Amino acid sequence: MSAQATVAPWLVDYDATVAAFDWDRAWDDLGGRPDAEHGVNIADLALDRHVRAGRGDHVAIRWIGRDPADVEAPVDLTYSMLASRTHRFACALRNNGFGPGTGVATLTGRIPDLYVTALGTLKGQGTFTPLFSAFGPDPIAQRLQLGHIKVLVTTPTLYRRKVAGIVDRLPDLELVLVCGATEDQTAGSTNGRRGGPRVLSFGAFLCDGTKTFEIGYTDPETPALLHFTSGTTGTPKGAIHVHGAVVTHHLTGRLVLDLHPDDVFWCTADPGWVTGTSYGIIAPLTNGVTSIVDEADFDAERWYRILERDAVDVFYTAPTAIRMLQRLGPELAAAHDFGALRLLASVGEPLDAEAVRWCERVFQVPVLDTWWQTETGGIMIANYRSEPVRAGSMGRPLPGIEVGLLARTPDGDLVTDDRGAPIEITDPDISGELALRAGWPSMFRGYLDQQDRYDAAFVDGWYRSGDLARRDADGYFWFVGRGDDVIKTAGHLIGPFEVESALDEHPAVAETGVIGKPDETAGTIVKAFVVLGHDQVPSDDLRRELLGHARSRLGAAVAPREIEFVDSLPHTRSGKIMRRLLKARELGEDEGDTSALETPAWAT
Ligand code: 6R9
After folding, report:
1. Which of 5, 282, 359, 591 has the fewest Cβ atoms within 10 Å of its own Cβ atom?
2. Ligand 1 centroid vs 370 CA: distance in angstroms?
3. How far is the CA of 544 from the centre of ligand 1 (A)?
4. pLDDT digits over 341-395, tens only?
5. 292 lines ligand 1 (CB under 6 A)
6. Does 369 contact ligand 1 (Cβ within 6 A)?
7. Model-level pTM?
């Protein structure tokens, strides 16, 4: 019998839960609200708390290695094993002088040491920054610099290919820990830079099990995570999250993902992005479930096999992945039994109604769309298991969260009243900027070293998401689009400026404008419009060279998939590239009001 019928949902009645909701009570399940005597440490709640409660032998992470044969031979890591390994990591950090506040980053695929680093760092009250392993050297260097990262955990291959060449740009970096390397491979290595980071093997760095480590009192406002995210312009922004955010991770794990302690849960997101940390590490572990971690990239047959073999109860993935499954057809899925699957949810990009229906046919459960951002730390709007799913809608606010829509002018400015306060849209079906009443526990507490950008994200007690949405008469939110030029490709957030800067550095390039171009599978792909230097002639060879240049700098995850040569780019009077017009042209749309242009519209 399917587990669907046997496990009662945590959230039974949405309206009643919202009416009775109280953030203080939300802490009850985690041992009570922290106070001056009892702090809150995410790693303690994720691991040691379960060991103290006698669930140490329960499997916390079922790790599946990259090779096809590994699917049949997963490695189980129990709550006790992870508790002890993270203690050893925290102990080693402390013994090497890396105290509270130390910035620790990972640049690895989905391997067990990543999870040990994340939670071990949190035990020692350092801040954890995951970096996506498909980033190229430029995005990696920039984030390590901006984050003042002192300790980097990586693999031998990634170290050689992406890190060794950039250490000279990283004055704060003191230690590199290489996973899976033997001591011999790393002994004495200093990267050839005098005073450069020490390079040690991860295994050799861990303290032996005889040394004890006590988690110190952790104030809920202690920084825990530093996640880089991209804006339209400028450098990536480091969103700071605190230990107290864990109550949102835990609560959403319960109310939205409906995690029960005996569940097998699989979040396919990479921890290099916020979903892979909030829902690939924290929420499943605080909820005591068994979490699947698959090292390999997307492979439909493999995914179906894992869902069936490991009897996954709750599956959290992205619309791009669902579209990829859809494109391969239902036959592949039909050979498998997904009887255990109780809940399927998605995040990161718009989820169309057809995908919801397709999943209902193939998996016997609909996909529950959820909306949130790096800055919100956790799910803010969702469809719930016990409520009717409105296919195509992002759902309704998490209990305890107030969502508003702020009126905008066509230029993207907020409409304000005579006090200068924004105007909230209350009528149904009118789109505005999605905003959240500031102050929820997992709200980001700053953009590292960028107070102005942080302040600019708030207006009159609202956090401005930058997304456009509308609300229907029943209170369900519908995604309308991004209010800015940021690109979501295959669920990953890319800042166009970062891509433009890398292309602009090529000697043949005069100027670049980067947009998201609609794509059937990835939602959008990164496309660059390139103006060449005056002595350059467009050719396929040059296009290939530029694509290669961008790839080697930015990595496959960020580099453009398409390049189009143009004679000029549209600019505002102040000289900014008008990506909006590039996009309109790409879509064959009317370019609209071009009065702000210096070069009127297009001159290709
Ligand atoms: C968690 C995450 C945030 C941006 C967000 C929005 C887009 C997220 C969505 C969605 C449509 C959904 N987004 N969920 N768009 N429907 N259900 O993805 O964080 O990488 O910071 O991206 O993703 O545009 O503003 P992040």
Report:
1. 5
2. 9
3. 31
4. 999 999 999 998 889 999 999 999 989 999 999 999 999 999 999 998 899 999 9
5. no
6. yes
7. 0.94
